[in-house]
């Protein structure tokens, strides 16, 4: 597993396991937990979840998956904006910890920008960190202006990660947000690296995948990981998909591959609103 250096100290695996959509049906929970455990068996220790996913159900699935294996996991969860107040974020984090069956998170994110002042959320994050409930904090779905404001707040420079939508069809962050994060050596965590499967029928992506003897999904994830300061958290709810995701670490896209993908999925030439799913 390759890693990125966090500005607040420590390292972040470049490939993780997403859990968006898990924990929504009781009949699927055992298989979902088994898939996450298989990822741990393969060394994919980064697991991303949120109190929003399945109304806490995804955190419960993760808790089952990591039971007895907490030391193998870089565990990420997120707080709703409406819970991100001074006391609300502390209480929300404690609820997440109970569902996850652990006493701390490695990374706690503000899920998206809401009406709570950033200074108040930062105070809550600092309290959680001082009390050992979280090791690092960060944000999700923050655009360039949001990050500029965050960095201007006391304690905002301790932000460890910005998690955003990024894939071959959603390259808007390359115009301004991604360069600014790179300047500050802030890792960017890409969610939905295969656009929930919608880009997988593209013929150019298929051609590149055929050259490497892999799937289009693996090429799409590999493309994300080929960028500086980026990690990816694709969801995989089956053992087979977990194994395919893990195999992405062995793929090396050539300059010709990247040029072909760039021609099919052009980089932005102007600022655009941050894309969100």
TrEMBL record:
Catalytic residue positions: 53 (proton donor)
Domain NADP-dependent oxidoreductase: 15-263
Binding-site residues, substrate: 111
Domain of life: Bacteria
Pfam families, per database record: Aldo_ket_red (PF00248)
GO MF term (any one): oxidoreductase activity
Record site feature (Lowers pKa of active site Tyr), residues: 78
Name of the protein this chain belongs to: Aldo/keto reductase
Lineage: Bacteria, Bacillati, Actinomycetota, Actinomycetes, Pseudonocardiales
